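Chain A, query sequence.
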Amino acid sequence: MYTGWLRKFKVDRLLEPQERYEALPRNCSERSNEHHCVIRLNSTYMDVVDRRYRLRGMVATTVGTLVCTMMALFGIWLLAMWVPNARPDGQIDGWLVAIILTLFIGQFPVMWRYTFGRDFFTYKYYPIRFNRRTRMVHAYTDAGPSGVISVPWDHACFHLGHGEGETFLRDIRCHVMDGEMVRKTFAVGHYFDDPATIREIWEFIRRYMDEGPEHVFDVPASAQLHLSVADTWKNCYLTVIISLGEGLLPYRAVLMPLLVPLAACRWLVLKSSKAPQWPAYVVAESSVDVADPHQLPEPAYVGQFHEFTASDGCARLER
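Chain A, predicted structure.
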């Protein structure tokens, strides 16, 4: 699930046979569903989150933060209470202090490099913009406005992506090609364990780019967005509840001691991060008509336009 985030995509390589075989079709009649991946939609462009959004500040960062903090506090206790009494003469052993500092305090730079630094003080989300007027796809990256990946829609290589550690996970991957060589890669939308769900998200994107916003929803009356990227406590809490899935949803009250730290860590991560700012050339080509009939309102919180009950609940938002 961390492919393309904590573990970088493999680039500067040949396209693999499986990626060719699982290329996503450019004409399709399957069901269309955005599965809470779209955050903005109008007649000019559509913004979709990338796969890391649902993981921001969640289990890896929360557990890492709690473990590192407890280890650091234990190290401070050792320095204050045990080290001064470790020798009969009352002298402090410098080597012992150095070892404790290295083991218990020096863990933070390591964790910052491999986990914390990729979550805290970054960007709140990393959108992918599909522009119908220019027929371009723009993907926001860790490098910010200067690192935006832009590729023509008709030349982008989309395929069904597979998780590396969790091989059962699927997502939409896009390669920027240079002949037969993969030069850049980014993921589009959430990941799921069901390929059919991923194909429904792809069909939503394909219809938007090739047929227009009026054709993306199978049921026109259901034309509304559900995902909010506002960095509010309510959004963070709802995201954590949604992540339980249907099986654990009835036990959320019992699991609250575990869920509250997750929501708090996600809130801290998003609050510490910046909102993405598209470069001038992307903004210039993304103007929206004032009376655009296909501009959908953006929800203030997750599921605002889909009121749900505790029984059928948040898990429905994930599907």
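The two ends are 18 Å apart (CA to CA). Confidence is low (pLDDT under 50) at residues 308-319.
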